[in-house]
Amino acid sequence: MDFRLSEEQQQFADSLQRWIARDYSFEARQKIVASAPGVSDPAYAALTELGALALAVPEEAGGLGGSPEDLMIVMKEIGCGLVIEPYFATVLAADFLRRGGHTAVLEQVAAGTLQLACALNEKEAGHELFNIAVTARADGDAYVLHGSKCAVIHGAQADALVVSVRTSGAPRDQDGISLLYVPRDTPGMSITEYRTYDGQRAASVVFDQARLPATALIGQAGKGWEILEAATDFGVVLLCAEAVGAMEAANALTLDYLKTRQQFGVPIGTFQVLQHRMADMCMHAELAKSITILATVKAHRAPVNERRKLVSAAKVRVGKAMQFIGQQAIQMHGGMGMTNEMSIAHYFKRLTAIETTLGNTDFHRTRFTRLPEFASA
Amino acid sequence: MDLEYKEEDLRFREEVRQFFREHLPPELSEKVRTRRRIQREDAVRWHKILAKKGWIAPGWPVQYGGTGWSSMERHIWAEEYALAYAPPTLSFGLNLLAPVLLGFASEEQKQHYLPRIYHAEDWWCQGYSEPGAGSDLASLKTRAEREGDFYIVNGQKTWTTLGQHADWIFCLVRTSTEGAKQTGISFLLIDMKTPGISVRPIITLDETHEVNEVFFDNVKVPVANLIGEENKGWTYAKYLLGHERTGIAAIGNSKRELKVLKRLALRKQVDGAPLLHAPTFAARVADVEIELMALEMTALSLVADGASHKIGPEASLLKVKGTEISQAISELLLEAAGPAGLAFDPEYLAGHKAHAASGDDELAPLAPHYFNLRKITIFGGSNEVQRNVISKMILGL
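Structure tokens for the assembled complex are given below, as produced in the milestone run.
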């Protein structure tokens, strides 16, 4: 058993940190947030240059075939640096494509020339990604899509979307789900962009008789749930890693504030009530990190139910830590924590957004308790 | 990263399991499993079995009888120990006094006391806390005044666990009132048979006699019983507090108890279905299980390859979270018992009767267990003191 990063991985983490420190300061990030596209081409190019995209693509598809640990390193630094580029959206979509054998475009992902996003959410579905009302009707050698998706993170920035649709069955059936690769210029698809509170961009996507060739199908028709669940489980682990990075940064900022902010003639960190709160934040971060490592290293090789257990456990534990650390970091920054100019506020907002992405704490806790193993003692 | 146990660790685990299967007397593990009181003779009997195997003092240096196990092996040992329902050993001598002796006693003292601890010839108890010195231990007042070749000890110790069985007590005593309160403390070994010592039981809220008050009235203690230097006792005590941390997170114990909890909650019915499937109860069980998964990884990260094997202030995290988990499970156990958990039969728990008065032997111990476990966030440095340690040693506040 060994929890250390390899020398190569450590160097990779260091180079990501150096890039963020040099080119992705909080001020630089805020400029990107306020810019029209809401993302930065040079930043995406830098991530590509560092190898972060190629790591997400298998070697046989033209990438570097990184391990989940390698991607955990990227996501942790992205969390630490509050990076808002469409990295996660692209990597998650690429994982759908890899699982579905739809690998022809992955080389472009690795090269940083193709950005992707995943259209999985629907208004009435909450966190249940199998609750799909968007239909795709087979029409000769084509699919015709109808319905709308919401909260498509970086949907307007993407060159193509991975879309979950229903080709048969009722909205909550796990059978009858299909996955389609939809280029952005597809006629009948309209994308409306909006801001999310954590500085990112999202989109509503409406399909009105949008016509796609049968070759757009990822995996088998009607059998998309298996891929969807596995890929989003992988996405949850990545989000946990991002959260761990953001929580470590939020804790460091808060600790620094406790040591420098003076009230009653002393640094406020001399007050025991704040010391103990900070100790609790530190313990939350540590346990969140531990369970994220567990899920990262083991989930991708585990049998399905074991994977579900590891992934949901991680999201639950990380979810609790995100809420405690996010809220308490603001509390301990006092009035300053309420200002939009302090980065701590933006860590809090990102942590809050991660909670509601790919299943919140309650959703994953329920999923955990419904696994056969939970009730076998 | 590699989260798999190594081949040799798996072999070690199997060896340990086999040892428990072959050598742990079933009547002892049954007592632990049914949460009935472990008597002095039970503890001594088990201690001697482990001593014969050479596994009674894993943390000691090999030349004094230690096992030479790696941190990982000791982690596995602690886990399997709990899973086997093995009774506790005489921890005060083995795990609390011995490290101080090894670090600071004279060769003569080591040669005398360590083998006696190893073979359970002496039952040791700990004389640290006083009525006015709990978390603020250094404010202790029990005096030891030098008179020729003796110290004359006067004062009172409290919360002395299993002092009623003890042959000896290791004490922190005040030998000087000058300077800071930490500087005038000495580490003294006292024979419990010495005239002037009296022991009074303290009955805890679960109506058991685990702890005592120990009074010292002009007790004559040979100067030869001083460990290390006079007025350096605080340094030794602090060394001790940071020393024996294997198993502090009680991972194995909590894994075991979680299974017990689930089994009980599968049998209890609510709304015509097992309690374990009731969403609110299931959610609380899940939270504990997930917390335990996370804590186990943290504990493993501290004993895996490349970890700094001297566990420092991280031990405080293991203590805080480990005890919170243990308490949470004991609470859920009592809740799962429902109204039947109200029954209380100390005679049964003490082993004086074959069956509980309520007719339900399984549920009878759950309330006392819950009440008794409130101690674990108080003793060994309360969880508040542990948070002080984290904020000072890790966070630099």
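Chain B touches chain A through 49 residues (CB under 8 Å). The first strand of chain B starts at residue 124 and ends at 127. Further analysis is deferred to the final report.
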